[in-house]
Amino acid sequence: MTEAGGVNRTNAVLSKLSLIGDLLMLQLVFLVCSVGIVTLYPAAFALQRVLPEALSQEHPALLRRFWRQFRWAFGRFWLAGLALYFGSIALAFGLLFWASTSGPMRIVALAILIPLTGMIVGLYLSALAVVPDAPEDSTAKSLFRSANLFLLRRSLPIAGGVIGLFTWFALLSRLPTLFVVGSGLVPALLAYWISRPAKKVSGTVSI
């Protein structure tokens, strides 16, 4: 192996380690910010808006950028995030309740709740996918409209993202310690993967 080849390989390893370190740092900041229920979804949106910069390794001061995006997201989406949080809790309770019962109503209820859950999770992933390109004057209503349009146009990749997120939840139920390293990053990376082939689509969405 030549000296130049060894240097290049060392630089590549250091770059990957730096990327992993940045992602873990953002994950920990997300955990701190999401402790308050009202700050959970603003923290997720802030993480999503900073994630492309972290992955590209082109912009320093990621923490400063995260806090700026967090203030931006909190001012616009805290109320919608709070409603989404309590709606998610109610939906999860309904799923657990009907899954533990018996009888024909159980089948009917689950046949309604399971697709509804998948649709809501898909819409959430769509919101994460479009939020990095959202303009500064975005509102909860405009973001929902853009996410809904994105969901209609990219339904197949989003379905894959929903399956991936449910798989993550199943793994999390077996290994709860993974929550610390992936609770924010896993949905963010799935949404980033969904948005990449449709960069032009999300860019043309009017918010």
Strand count: 0
- Cα distance spanning the termini: 52 Å
Total DSSP helices? 9
Shape: globular
Beta-strand content: under 5%
Backbone structural class: mainly alpha
Q: The biggest beta sheet, please?
A: none
Oligomeric grouping of the chains: single chain
How would you sum up this structure in a few lines?
This protein has helices spanning 3-33, 40-56, 62-99, 104-130, 140-153, 155-174, 179-182, 185-195, 199-204.
Please provide a written account of the structure.
This protein has 207 residues and is an all-alpha fold. 81% of the residues lie in helices and 0% in strands. It is built from nine helices and no strands. The chain has helices at 3-33, 40-56, 62-99, 104-130, 140-153, 155-174, 179-182, 185-195, 199-204. Residues 198-207 have low confidence and may be disordered.
Any chance you could write out the topology, listing elements then pairs?
Blueprint: H1 3-33, H2 40-56, H3 62-99, H4 104-130, H5 140-153, H6 155-174, H7 179-182, H8 185-195, H9 199-204
Helix pairs in contact: 1-2, 2-3, 2-8, 3-4, 4-5, 4-6, 4-8, 6-8
